[in-house]
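Bumping with the actual sequence this time:
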Amino acid sequence: MTESPEFAALDALSTEELRERAFHVARKHLDVGFYWDVVRHLPDAETAASLDGAFNTVGPTVDEWFALFREFEGHDFGDDEPLLRAKFIDYLLKHDSAK
């Protein structure tokens, strides 16, 4: 199976640039589900464990979510980096209309 030119171009980017692009697209689409999925895979599991993701509970506001992700800018994702890269690339391939 050969990789698409779009995949190859995205795969050549740094993880941080992939994260920035994916977050930009998710913000445009107000895709809270994408953010929740990423948070569950971040190395700091305590942060994810404190958020239950239910829309009917009192929890972080969208601004607090963005602040949380800003904390992870330039963060070393450790062993989870390949998984997060794959999530970012997959999300961009499926949702980025600017490609």
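The tokens above came from a reply further down the thread. The helical segments are 5-11, 15-29, 32-40, 45-49, 62-71, 81-95.
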